């Protein structure tokens, strides 16, 4: 999928003087069914995460606390997103390489995924990812 399919999705917010609430519904707010949720936290200063791509997995990435940068790459172009609001999610379609860095102190990154963990869905080698992405777009 082209990088232009990646986008920030504004999630519903219910504002209340007692605190705010945001919710996410499969197929309504995000374009896939949620089958897995995981989160990154206690990332040391200066560390990077991710550095991989997925063949078929759709994801929504949210900065639940703090902030971090996400660089997306479809094999032809790259885009940088700065996530820092818990009511914005970054939709990442399949065949997109991602790098996460610039984590603030106390940052928490939650990821909603369209499928269960499957190591065979991963690209861990950037050059192999590039070759496959470019072959798909011939």
List keywords for this structure.
single chain; about 140 residues; mainly beta; Jelly Rolls; five-stranded antiparallel beta sheet; about 10% helix
Written description of the protein model:
The chain has 138 residues and is mostly beta strands. The protein has one domain (3-136): Jelly Rolls (Sandwich). Helices cover 8% and strands 41% of the residues. The protein is built from 1 helix and 12 strands. β2 and β3 form a beta hairpin. The longest helix is centred in the C-terminal third of the chain and has 11 residues, at 126-136. The chain is globular and about 55 Å long. 25% of the residues are buried.
Helix-strand blueprint:
Layout: E1 7-10, E2 13-14, E3 21-22, E4 36-41, E5 49-54, E6 59-65, E7 68-73, E8 78-83, E9 88-92, E10 97-101, E11 108-113, E12 122-123, H1 126-136
Domain Sugar 3,4-ketoisomerase QdtA cupin: 5-132
Protein name: WxcM-like, C-terminal
Pfam family, one: FdtA
